[in-house]
């Protein structure tokens, strides 16, 4: 017998001891898999949550969803590196959850689903077996650095020549500092650097600040600030926000002032952050999040695909326009191959 529960208030999840424990740091070692992350999205990013939860003697399955635009989507946004269902036990009831969701939605769209852990394949299989039509497509790239026990010096020796040359020429001109706690003044400097960088407008600064403050209190924050070495008390010219847990360093945000580009402060600060992660935090993996930006290839060594899964109830009239588009795209693809 599978128990299905839908929660629209996170306090309801916290009142279920087993579920709250499963979604806490004790069991989940990436921020995107925890209740606190989803609470932040709901509170600061105008998302309406629907937490779908299934449990039976074989285990449990949790799918954090958001409602809006006439469908259910992943409870995730631009801050989320990857999205996946959370499962536990020898036979987690993901298929039971997929069947139950047919009564709650005509369409469910998930993006940035990984498959190095089998999440995309397992989700696709569960929904297809439950009677959904599923379209799976690659939607992004995740750049990573498997450390393989290397020191920073070992890692640096394998970087492209242009990176090593830049660091040799510019490291003496930039002073980097790495904080492992949240500091209001340092955070204000990060925001000032971001505002004068090439980066687009921040989606929800309060979400990121709240997350950084909580990670700082837990000892997981790594906040890097770089200044001109000739003006050590002057304004920050580059800033980066990382977190470290479960053997992984997550690179959440980085930016530098365009006016200081000649000093390559972003590169010098990246080198300092990676050195800290490898030699002090002793991480086994550095995760540069989503996006196939060319500069990420200078620092990372491998790429992992991210997938979108679009699930449709086949008999729902609301899905007919989407099914027509799918058919046209398949026809066009077949024509191009011919």
From TrEMBL:
MF-aspect GO terms: transferase activity
Alphabetical list of PROSITE patterns matching this protein: PROKAR_LIPOPROTEIN
Record's keyword annotation contains Transferase: yes
Keywords per UniProt: Transferase
InterPro entries: Acyl_CoA_acyltransferase, BioF2-like_GNAT_dom
Domain of life where this protein originates: Bacteria
Any Pfam family matching the protein: Acetyltransf_6
Keyword Transferase found: yes
Positions of the BioF2-like acetyltransferase domain: 168-297
Protein name: GNAT family N-acetyltransferase
């Amino acid at each position: 017998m599978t128990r299905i529960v839908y929660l629209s208030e996170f306090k309801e999840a916290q009142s279920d001891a087993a579920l709250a424990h499963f979604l806490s740091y004790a069991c989940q070692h990436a921020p995107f898999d925890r209740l606190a992350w989803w609470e932040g999205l709901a509170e600061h990013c105008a998302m309406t949550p629907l937490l779908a939860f299934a449990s039976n003697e074989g285990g449990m399955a949790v799918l954090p969803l958001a409602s809006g635009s006439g469908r259910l989507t992943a409870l995730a946004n631009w801050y989320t590196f990857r999205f996946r269902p959370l499962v536990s036990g020898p036979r987690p009831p993901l298929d039971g959850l997929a069947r139950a969701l047919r009564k709650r939605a005509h369409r469910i769209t998930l993006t940035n689903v990984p498959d190095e852990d089998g999440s995309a394949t397992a989700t696709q299989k569960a929904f297809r077996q439950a009677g959904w039509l599923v379209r799976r497509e690659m939607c992004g790239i995740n750049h990573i650095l498997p450390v393989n026990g290397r020191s920073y010096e070992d890692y640096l020796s394998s970087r492209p020549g242009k990176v090593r040359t830049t660091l040799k020429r510019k490291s003496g001109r930039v002073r980097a500092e790495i904080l492992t706690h949240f500091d209001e003044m340092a955070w204000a400097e990060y925001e000032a650097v971001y505002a004068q960088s090439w980066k687009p407008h921040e989606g929800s600064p309060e979400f990121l600040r709240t997350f950084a403050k909580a990670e700082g209190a837990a000892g997981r924050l790594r906040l890097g600030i770089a200044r001109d070495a000739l003006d050590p008390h002057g304004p920050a010219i580059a800033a980066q926000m990382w977190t470290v847990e479960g053997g992984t360093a997550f690179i959440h945000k980085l930016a530098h002032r365009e006016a200081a580009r000649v000093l390559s402060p972003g590169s010098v600060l990246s080198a300092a952050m990676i050195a800290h992660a490898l030699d002090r935090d002793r991480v086994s993996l550095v995760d540069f999040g989503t996006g196939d930006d060319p500069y990420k290839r200078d620092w990372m060594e491998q790429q992992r695909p991210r997938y979108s899964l679009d699930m449709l109830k086949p008999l729902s009239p609301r899905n007919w326009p989407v099914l027509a588009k799918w058919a046209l795209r398949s026809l066009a693809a077949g024509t191009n191959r011919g």
